What we know:
By secondary structure, the chain is mainly alpha-helical. The chain is built from five helices and no strands. The chain has helices at about 15-30, 40-55, 60-80, 90-115, 115-145. Helix 2 (about 40-55) runs antiparallel to helix 3.
Amino acid sequence: MINELDIHTNFKSEKTVQSLHRIEAYLEALKMHDTPIPEPIEKEINKELASLSFFDGSESELQFKLFALYDHLKKMMAAELKLVPKNHYQSIWMSLGLSVFGLPVGLLWYFMTDNVAYIALGLPIGLLIGMSVGINLDRKAEREGRQLDFTPM
């Protein structure tokens, strides 16, 4: 069983509180999902949460640690259990579409027409290609029951 996130700290900036809520919501989505979490992964999650319990660093260090914990949890669940939050693939593939498809298409048009304006025309095309691939992968994950009921903030 995954333990609760219990941090005893005086830091209450908006960024810190938002990071705490994001991790709590992600852990709640993991608990509510049907997929059982293997014991080694559960132990690792609990160890990470316990390391935060009595954090004594600065608030910026805590924010960095909370961001790193959230990122680690998300990557571990995606790699080990193939569990992803909503819009996970869409956010990844939008940037990939821009760089892998959009920029080369724009450069190709630039070289064909010798007009620099066509470089910018390729970017929205790449964005659309990336979004469509990401949306399809998100739908596939939802159909297979691998999508958590969690939308990142």
